[in-house]
Amino acid sequence: MTAIAFYSQMAAALATGPIVLATVVAIRGSVPREVGAKMLVLPNGQTIQTIGGGAGEAKVIQHALSVLTTGAKQFVEIDLTGTVQTAIDGICGGQMRVWLERWQGEAAIALVHHILHTLQSGQALTLVTPFDPQRSPYVTAAQDSTAIAGNATELRECLEPPPALLIVGAGHCGIQLAKVADLIGFQIFVQDDRPEWANPAHYPQASRIFTTAIAPVVAQFQHHPQLCAALVTRGYQYDLAALHALLTRPQPCAYIGMIGSKKRVRQVLQAIAKADIPPARLQALHAPIGLDIGALTPAEIAVSISAELILVRRGGTGQPLSATLHHSP
Description:
Helix content is 33%, strand content 25%. The chain has 329 residues and is α/β, with parallel strands linked by helices. Helix 1 runs antiparallel to helix 3, helix 4 crosses helix 8 and helix 6 packs across helix 7. The longest helix has 17 residues.
């Protein structure tokens, strides 16, 4: 789940009354979640998101309901080493420390909305959570590339906007791609000059839908640090216009994928080569788009493209994970 999605849920929950935010602030050994993982606990005991499930999470929920009543912030220790004394928390091999804090009132609501506004504008920020009963969480400008830094007195988290995926071409493949890319954490934007295709009915996941020309649309993302683009257009001329706008933007795209046959791709590349695009910019171009998984249907093509987006974003080989087992002694 993206930070925008999580804090949107948090804003909705806060609008109904106090909640408790449970945050994993330290780990040791093998544990189900990472530092910074969060879960909201509501007054009725329901939760939003998870810090790992099982008996350990149930223990946190029980303490959170007490914090909800008293307002007394606290740590909860979860021991998953599986010793006789601590097996009740679960057996995973490690230990987790979770910070519980009640959020309520106008100040908390304002802070969450500030986080949302900043992330939605494509900017990062740092959320600081002091481990002090007298101090409340606050935000500062993003200070460095360290995503999470914790110590005995506070947790600092660099909250970054989710990567943006601009889908150019609102046809059948685009509709399915928006669904899958939304699931894997991308903020969806769509451009197509046909309102009968580019509309909220076809793209309920989209933050914005553009039916203007592609060049001014790309210009609106000139400062976005993680822009990805998938060209699933209906024709050669639309690919050329989109590529020219994307390859000449001030900040290079993290990913540009273009659908089409090898012949169509060659024609587009030959045409774009005449536009004097720096060769380094072309390294972001993946054409034909997607990983070779034998995809045929629009939904399968969407999975292929999304798999390539994950590969570019997270790294990896694209090979079957089972290959490592088969090749081991």
